[in-house]
Amino acid sequence: TSLSGILYPRESESREVVSLDGIWKFLTSPTEDQENGFRNKWYSTHFEKWIQMPVPSSYNDVTVNSAIRDYVGWVWYQHEFYVPKRWWADKQRVVLRFGSVHYTAMVWVNGKKACEHSGGHLPFQADITQLLLYGTANIVTVAVNNTLTPTSLPQGFIQHPNDTSRYPPGYILFHHDFDFFNYAGIHRPVYLYTTPQTYIDDITVITDIDGDVGIIKYVVKYKNKLMDLSSTPLCTVTVFAQNGTRITSVIGLTGKIHIPKANFWWPYLTSPTPGYLYTLKIHLNSETGDDVYRLPIGIRKISWNATTFLINNVPTHMRGFGKHEDSNLRGKGLDYTLLIRDYNLIAWLGANAYRTSHYPYAEEALDMADALGIMIIDESPACTIDYFTDELLQKHKAVMTELVRRDKNRPSVVMWSLANEPRSFRNESRKYFSALVNLTKSLDTTRPVSFVTSQTADTDKAVQFMDIICVNRYPAWYSDSGRTDLIQLQVKNELAKWHHVFNKPVLVTEYGAGSVIGMHTAPSSMWTEDYQVVTLKEHFKAFDALYKEGFLIGEMIWNFADFATPQEYIRPGGCKKGLFSRERQPKMAAHITRWRYWTLAQNS
Ligand code: GCB
């Protein structure tokens, strides 16, 4: 049986959506007795002792307790809620949906297991119709474990050191090789939503263009919960323009719609109406009643060849950065204020693209990208894979399947990134990535597939399978530290080599320098804002030369904003390569990037 759909919960005339966000009860398991909560069935009654925890949010930075900040293992959340009796009377199907819980989650409703999921950053849900009590209090309990293993994505490693002269018995040392803090908790919204018994389970939309005609191909999948239907439901699909005007309707669970003189989806600053969205209204009529779902769509076409990346047949350069879901206090918790602030800054910079480094971002963030015309490189949570095993590959395939299922209809998503900086010099990475590319291409034939390498054209074993070469490079930072005079020469030679060895377009997915906001020297030196500015400027010159050669398709700075890392002596309180501080205020580097990106936009 194929995976069910995971459509974003949206209200309609047939669906209700209720948010369970708010302040939940929270407690940690005793470190030395991780099974305690399971043995004593913490999910079957109200917690006896707890602290308050906001949802959505990471739990790490909310308290003043380092044991909670650095906790490794099972933590528990609990919340009480009500559902109306009429949902039962009206035979509604009720679904509980989590936008993301990091990393492993087990969910109980009124003491009964509802679902489990492993992998942060992607949604999961369960039909809880039969577990609910209608018209009286319900309890939802969620056990969350942030432990990463050699077969989780990303990978992590637990050590139990036995040197008792240095570590007490039972002491856990947890480490991972990726460079950001392993925030954990219920990170994204929790929703209850209803559907009728026969419901729209999934929608797949593929768009194309022909002259000024927009083409929308769609497939609607429905499911039927209880009885067998005696006839196939009637599906009516109506297209609405952005201003709400009805354009056309067709009938059928699959179909192809032509929109004459269509408004195509264009990236930011390439059209007066970037991010133009139509609405596809799906109306399913069956003997159990009607179900209605509205899906925003953008009409656009992606193509690429050995040198060029095109949107709607127009060669397109990406101007952007890598980001993180990261901010003070909330960690990776979705925050609407931060979300809108970030998009205001993206628009201010004149950027048109970013990579969801190093994991899939919140659906709410991608909604904004769809609507503003920001191109997204949609990355899986496979950061810094060290060891390649069949077990990990199976997990990675499952994650790519979940990611494509979630984001396949988004116009903003223009490329899949399978991983960031895996150890792709290892021979095992060849088979591993070839299998992953094949799987991803079988799930989506319309978008290029890549991963982000930190290897060289001579050592990398996996880039050969990719559509586009994505490279991270830190001249004058991690190599030849302090030597900004070498940047132009090194960047030009290296990127040209990538192209000439593989005959594919090249995208710089990371480069930059750390700067502590407010720190200055002349001449510039590492960690000052001046040095970050010089580093970027030298790269700009190299990129301009390479655009003339024709194979560079874009530039992405590391990083949009400063973010939290594990505590390390190479990081002054986190990764400081942001154009903005962690509080989202501009450094000098933001101003020169703004000047560059607006200039590039005007010349394109
Ligand atoms: C990288 C990684 C990124 C780090 C960055 C850095 O190559 O891809 O996750 O944050 O370097 O600043 O060290």
Automatic annotation (TrEMBL):
Compartments it resides in: Lysosome
Main location: other
Matching Pfam families: Glyco_hydro_2_C, Glyco_hydro_2_N
InterPro entries in UniProt: Beta-gal/glucu_dom_sf, Galactose-bd-like_sf, GH, Glyco_hydro_2, Glyco_hydro_2_AS, Glyco_hydro_2_cat, Glyco_hydro_2_N, Ig-like_fold
Gene3D superfamilies attached to this UniProt entry: Galactose-binding domain-like, Glycosidases, Immunoglobulins
EC numbers for this chain: 3.2.1.31
PROSITE patterns in UniProt: GLYCOSYL_HYDROL_F2_2
GO cellular component: extracellular space; lysosome
GO biological process: carbohydrate metabolic process; glucuronoside catabolic process
Record keywords, A-Z: Glycoprotein, Glycosidase, Hydrolase, Lysosome, Signal
Domain Glycoside hydrolase family 2 catalytic, residue spans: 307-600
Residues covered by the Glycosyl hydrolases family 2 sugar binding domain: 19-196
GO molecular function (one): carbohydrate binding
Top-rank taxon: Eukaryota
Function per UniProt: Plays an important role in the degradation of dermatan and keratan sulfates.
Oligomeric form and interacting partners: Homotetramer.
Database matches in PANTHER family: BETA-GLUCURONIDASE (PTHR10066:SF67)
Protein family according to the UniProt entry: Belongs to the glycosyl hydrolase 2 family.
Protein name: Beta-glucuronidase
